[in-house]
Design goal:
The chain has helices at 2-24, 74-83, 106-144, 149-182, and strands at residues 40-43, 46-49, 54-60, 63-68, 90-92, 97-100. With 184 residues, the protein is of the alpha+beta class. The chain has a four-stranded antiparallel β-sheet, covered by helices on one side. It is elongated. The mean pLDDT is 87.
Length: 184
C-alpha cells in the first residue's frame, strides 16, 4: 500500500524533472549551453549529442562558443544548429563556431511563454494520470481484501496531497520560466 504512494511519487518526480529539462531547451533572451542540449550531430554515421563532440561555453550573456574536438565537424555542427527550431545563425572561423543570440521580439516572447504553459499543462495531465493509476491500484487492493477501507481512504488522501504538491511545483516552475522569457 505504501508502495503505491512511493511508486506514484517516483513517477511524479520524473515528470517534474522532464518538464524542467524541456524548459532548458526553450530559448530565452540569454545565451545558455542548455539551449543546444537537443542538437544532434552526424558523427561517423551516428547522431551524437553536441556536448559529446565539442566544448560549449558562454563567454558573454548573448554569445555561445562551440569548440569541436574534431575540426572536420564544424560544417556538421553548423548544419545541425541551422536545422534546429532555435532560429540561431552560427558563424565559424575554422576553429570555433560562434552564435550570437539575438534578443527576442515581444511577439516571440509571448509565443515562447505560451509554449512553456502548454508544456506545463502536459506535465499536469501526466501527474493527474499517475494519481488516477495510483487510485485504481488502491481500489484493486481494497477489492482483493486484506486492507481496511479507512486505510485505503487515508492513502487516497495522501495521494491527493502528493498530487497537489507536484501540481504546485509545476506552477512555480512555469512561472519562473515565463518570467525568464519575458525579461528583456
Amino acid at each position: 500500500m505504501d508502495s503505491v504512494k512511493t511508486a506514484c511519487e517516483e513517477k511524479m518526480k520524473k515528470a517534474l524533472e522532464a518538464l524542467k529539462n524541456e524548459f532548458n531547451g526553450v530559448r530565452t533572451g540569454r545565451a545558455s549551453p542548455a539551449l543546444l542540449d537537443k542538437i544532434r550531430v552526424d558523427y561517423y554515421g551516428q547522431k551524437t549529442p553536441l556536448a559529446q563532440v565539442a566544448t560549449v561555453s558562454v563567454p558573454e550573456a548573448r554569445l555561445i562558443v562551440i569548440q569541436p574536438w574534431d575540426r572536420s565537424l564544424i560544417g556538421e555542427i553548423e548544419k545541425a544548429i541551422q536545422k534546429s527550431e532555435l532560429s540561431l545563425n552560427p558563424s565559424n572561423d575554422g576553429k570555433v563556431i560562434r552564435i550570437a543570440v539575438p534578443p527576442l521580439t515581444q511577439e516571440r516572447r509571448k509565443e515562447l511563454a505560451k509554449q512553456a504553459k502548454n508544456m506545463a499543462e502536459q506535465s499536469r495531465v501526466q501527474i493527474r494520470n499517475i494519481r488516477r493509476d495510483g487510485l485504481e491500484e488502491l481500489k484493486k487492493q481494497l477489492a482483493a481484501g486484506g486492507v481496511a477501507e479507512d486505510t485505503i481512504k487515508k492513502e487516497e488522501d495522501e495521494l491527493q496531497k502528493l498530487t497537489d504538491s507536484y501540481i504546485a511545483q509545476i506552477g512555480k516552475a512555469v512561472e519562473e520560466k515565463e518570467k525568464e522569457i519575458m525579461e528583456i
